[in-house]
Amino acid sequence: MSDAESAGTADRRIALRRMAVYGLGVFGLPALWRKSWPEATAADNGEGGAKRRAEAREDDRLFAVGKMPFATSPLRRMQKEAPEYLFMGDSMAPAFVDPAVVSAATGRRTSVLYLPASTSARWYLMLKNHVIRAGVRPRVVFLLFRDCLWNMPGFRVRDGFWDEIERCMPDDSDPVIDRVLGGPQRGSAGLLEKKLKQHIYPIQTARQLVNDGIENAGAALVRVDAEDLRQQATASFSFEQCRHGVNAAEVFDGIDALLPFSADPAHSFLPHTVELARQNGLQLHFIRVKRRPRRNRLHGDPPELAAYIRDMREWLAAQGIGLHDMTPDAAITADMYAEGDHLAVQHREWYTRRLLEQMKEAFR
Amino acid sequence: MIFHSLAFILFLIVVLLVAWRLRHEWQNRFLLVASWFFYGCVTWWWLVPFACTMILDWHCGKKLEDSPPEKRKRWLLLSVVFNLSLLGYFKYRGFFLENVHALWAAMGWGDAPEALRFIVPAGISFYTFQSMSYVVDVWRRQMPACRSLRDYMLFVSFFPQLVAGPIERASHLLGQVQTPRVFPWEKCTGAVTLMLWGYVLKLVISDNAALFANKVFALQSPSFPLLWTGVLAFAVQIYGDFAAYTAIARGVARLLGFELMENFRHPYLAVSPADFWKRWHISLSTWMRDYVYIPLGGNRGGRFRAAGNVLLTFLISGAWHGAAWNYILWGLYWGLLVAADNLWGAKLRLPVALRIVVMWGITGIGWMFFREQDFAFLRSHLTLSPFAAPPADWQLAIWISAQLAILSIPFWLHALWDLRLRPRWETWSASSGRGWLGEMVLGSALFLLILLLRSPESSAFIYFQF
Fold this sequence. Notes:
The complex is a heterodimer of chains A (364) and B (466).
Chain A: H1 3-33, H2 37-40, H3 47-58, H4 73-81, E1 85-89, H5 92-96, H6 99-106, E2 110-114, H7 120-132, E3 140-145, H8 160-166, H9 175-181, H10 188-200, H11 204-222, H12 226-236, H13 270-279, E4 283-288, H14 303-318, E5 322-325, H15 348-358
Parallel strand pairs in A: 1-2, 1-3, 3-4, 4-5
Chain B: H1 6-19, H2 24-40, H3 47-66, H4 69-106, H5 124-139, H6 149-157, H7 159-162, H8 170-178, H9 188-216, H10 224-255, H11 273-279, H12 282-293, H13 303-321, H14 325-344, H15 352-371, H16 375-382, H17 391-407, H18 409-432, H19 435-453
């Protein structure tokens, strides 16, 4: 080997060593450091941070591998509001129903519990873990859905949606979810990413503390309690303040897959939801929302969808459950919609009154 | 494939491991396949117009060099017409038809059929401009034609900069493709640190700012303070987003032995509209200067003729950004400002700090045009009065702005570093040979920032849509 070659090899060896140390330093130091984080900074944060930290400690799953922490705020909200009438569903639920109008008309506490872009897996889990687990027993739970979604258990359950499903589960798994979906729906890359984040760098608590710190620093500037500002922000940016349709989580053009109706417990969350409600003494009522009537498209349902809804109605009736179908209502016209299938805000009150009128029986 | 996904990191590791085991020619072949996989793995048909552009422009380049002078122009025209037609068909067809239909309806001629919008192939504006500039350069005899289709395709397809730039010139990148590369042992740690900086810009700064901006621009009737907080958030978001893409692209390219051009030079420290465009999206503004403004006549023919050329160049630049009226308005706004700056800017004598602050306001109004696609809302935004806002909204706006200011600290530290500390650091680093230790500390801090402050919601890069 010539002198130049051996010098090059030596340089390369030094460079390789440097790169190894660099890699260890960049990616290893945070992993070592994080172990001391929650306690080390506990004293440095204000009341809001301490409260959140205490909540985090109560829930040891925050540090579990491969599972998103259970979202407890909907549960607390249900406990606080203790609704007598509860409307559940995806972002269409608040778009079509104004709980204040229902409360004023019926004299009963009314709430809307929704998750944008949610589908039947999450509706089942929300009923189980956010409503029944909260210990509340509404007189009627109205489930808003569209078209065939109750027979599409695998719709919006993968990857990012799976994270949201996990946020509705207090435990690592749910037998009904396992049965219908056949186990977790996280993709392999997603799982690896989650393992990396939660096993090597499990810093959710630290993230919360840092976020609290930034929010508190901003609040100190205006000399208002950060919690008050958070509430103010929630009110200022609420669904009611939004432009028409911007809360549309995902707009689908056209009609979902047309399947024959089935209440097979292995392939649908519907029978499990009905059974769960029955076991807990809850009266369910299904509401099929009317999607935006589109130009150049069939008026009314195609025959397969009409048959599906007819069969679903019959099956629900056999369980003693009602189904209200908005779609034949000609009074709801295309110009009343904002973006996608969401009713424009200015028509919500009108529509809620119409719903009350059309569903008198259900509100008794 | 997006940069901030685990799939991309795995893809990059595989590409690096394989590419550096191959000799130059096979390395180029492999990088070409990898680039096409990167681009086509989501929507395969995007590869069709992409391949057509490259093959045609490569052929035109060769013909331009081989043809007698009297026949050269036809090859240039073929390339330009094809590229602009492709761009027009995919990007502007829907926009054009929508406007025709709106006019149709306004004339009371009944319901026009709905205009269909295609999914615009990602990065089409970037790669057509990059490819077209090569043909123009060959036509101007500023560079020889590339004889290897493989090398030419890699120059246009090179995956780090394919989707959102920088728009590279053949004179800069093609040579790097054609020359054998050696593994950049000394630059590796710096390249990874640059990528980490890009990830901080995207995941920490831009995505967190986007949460605020999206909330404000979703409001039906935002008050004056909330609206301007939203504008501020969007200003942080778009700079963080685009600068992030460039930083990651440059870092990845460096690991592969390439050097890409800088695209940003602290744009929010600009002291005038013309200065802003020397600092923002430099690869596009220099492209527009060289291939639109100068061919239009540049500053020949008098000051007012030059101002007209500036205005037209910015209008085209606005339309390049997107097929919507708000982008054209945005281009017009900047065109007027830059033209006015060229005509009368020298007469303004204000302190630098004040000029920077004034430019924030000017840039903010521009970003409002860019972000707000609904003209009714835009009109309402521009007529808002600060005195009509409730005190609670001012409190909320200051609170959010303070959070944005904290999130933006890395921008200012970066500017301080670049403008004041970097020369001293480079001298020390070269003499001591321990620069990599500093890079390690910086990299560790950046990685920690990502872990701690990464936004809960992340979106695709804004410039992907262009």
